[in-house]
Fold Aspartate carbamoyltransferase catalytic subunit.
Amino acid sequence: RPRALAESIPEDPSPLLALASRHVVSSRQFDRETLTQLFRLSAQYESTPALMHLPLQGKILISAFYEPSTRTRLSFESAWHRLGGDIMSITDPKSTGMAKGESIQDIAEMFNNYGDVIVLRNNEDRSVYDMLDALRIPIVNAGNGIDEHPTQAMADVYTIFKWRPELLDPDLPRDKRIRVGIIGVPNRMRTVRSLLLLLARFPTAIEEVVIFTDQDSPFDEGQAEELNQAGLSVRVSKRLEPELPDLDVVYINAIAWVGDSYEQMGAELKLSTHSPLKKDSIILHPLARGEELDTDLDPTLHNWYFAQARGAVFVRMALLTCMVRRVSEVMDT
Ligand code: CP
C-alpha cells in the first residue's frame, strides 16, 4: 500500500524546501502540495527502508513531553532514531526547572543550546506559542492543550491516502468522493481541530464530513466558516448509527475526554462489530482508546487505527528530515 501511494504521486521536492528550519505549530501552515509531497516521502520511507541514509546523524532531538503520551513521543523518537540522530527526552516536568517555576521562555533559551529540533507536548494551549520568540531552533507542536496536534492529523490523512491513493486526484469524479464521519468535538479536541484543517486541503476527495456530537456549539467562532470557505462540506449530527452505513471513513476519539457527554451519549457513540458499518469502510482512532472502540473490531478489515499509529513514524520521519536536511539529500532522485 505505501508503495502504491508513493508511485501515484509525481515527485516535486520544491514545496518541501520551505520546511527547512521551520516551526510546525498548526495544520494551517500546510498546503495541499506540501502535504502531498510529504506523504510521498513518508510512503517511500515506509515501503523502502533502505532509502534511509541516516540523514540526521549527529543531530539531537529534544523530546519534551510535559503531558503523558505513548504514541506521539515514541513515534517521534523512533523516527529520529531510524534517521540516525540522538535524543534527549523529558517525560516528567517535575524533573525539570518547571517544577521550580522556571519560565517557558527561559527553558526555550536553554533548548537552543542543547539540541537541533524540539518536539513539545504541553497541556497549555499557549505553551508552544510562548516558546517561539525565544527559539533559534525549530519546534514541532506535539499537542498543545485543546488547540492542535498537526502531526497526528498528517498521520491520519496519510492513512486515508494509503487506503485509497486515487483520492489524491484533483479531478476525481464526484461519485468517487468519500464521506467522513468524525466522532468528536472540533472546538474541544486538538486531534479533530487539526484533522479538519488538513481535510480542508483536499476538498476534491471528500463529499461530506459529518461531526457526531451532542454539543450544541461544537465549533469556535469562525471555525466552521473557515472549513466551508476552503470547500469542505461539514455538518453536525447527534445520531451516529443511522448514518454509519453511508460513511467510508469513521474517525472516532476517546469520548471520555469530553466529560459529561460520555455519560449521556456513550452508548450512541461506541463502535463494535455490531455497529452497522459500511462493508469497505475504515475506522481511524488517534488512540489511546477507551470503551468507545471495542477490541472485537481489531481483527476486522475495518481496523486501520493500528496502521494509522504505525504510519505516524514514517510521516514524522519525512517531516523531520525536511526540517533538518535539504530534501534533495534524502529523496530518491
Ligand atoms: N495520538 C496520540 O496523541 O497519542 P498519545 O497521547 O499516546 O501520544
